[in-house]
Amino acid sequence: MESPEVEAGETSNVPSDFGVGADGFNEFNYRPVPVIAVSGLVVALLSFIGVFVWLALPLCLIGLVLSVAAIVVIRRSKGAYGGTFVAASGVILSTLFFAGGIALQIYIYQTEVPDGYTRVSFVKDIADKPLVPQGEVADVHPDVKSLDGKKVFLKGYIYQTGKMKDLHSFLFVKDNQDCCFGANPAVTDRVGVVMQDGNSIDYVGGKVAIAGTFRINNEFTNTDQLEPLYILDGELFTTRVSDF
Asked: What would the pLDDT profile of 1-10 be if each residue is shown by its tens digit?
C-alpha cells in the first residue's frame, strides 16, 4: 500500500512530539541510577532490623550515609544520573528506623522494671565491686552487702552448663564472653539464681532479666569453681529487656 502524500500547505496528522525528521524516535529520557543510591536503599531496608535489635542500628547510619552521598552524586552529575527518589527513600527509611529503634529501647528501659523492684546493674553494682581483703580472707564489698535482702531487677546472661529445659536453678553472669572462650566466670561476675514457687525457665542465649530477692551466700566455701557467692531468689523472668 502506498503511503498517502501530503500536499503542499497541508498539515501532517503525525503528532509533532514524535520528533519526525529530527531522529525523535531514537531519543530516550532514561538516566542511569548510580549504584550507591541502590546500595543505600537496600541497606536502609535491611536496617529495619535495628528497630528490634540494638546491634543492628549501625545499619541505619550506613544506609543514611550512602543515601546522602547518592544525592550528592546525582546533583553533581548535572542531569547525567537519575534516582533522586531512590536516594531520598533511603534517607527517609534509615532515619525512621534509627529513630524507631532508639525510641523502642528507651520505652523498654523505662517500663521493664516491675513494681516493687530496684534496677541493679550487674556490671557496675556487682561485678565491678571486688572482694575486700580482711586479713587472710576476703569479704564482700560493702556496696554489694547493702543489696542483701533487697528486691532487685538484674539483667544478664544464663550460663550454659548443658541442660537447656526446665531450669529451676542456674548460674547468671554479667556477659556471655566467658561462655564463648571456655573460661569460668569470676566469683563477682556470677550470681546463682533459684527460681521460687516451683517455677522453671528454658535456656535463652541472649540477654534476659531476673527480678527477685538478692542475698549473700553465707555458706560459700569456694570449693566449687562455679559456686555462687551471691544468690538471687528468682520471682520473675523476662526476655523483653533493653540492651542498655
From this structure: 455 554 555 5
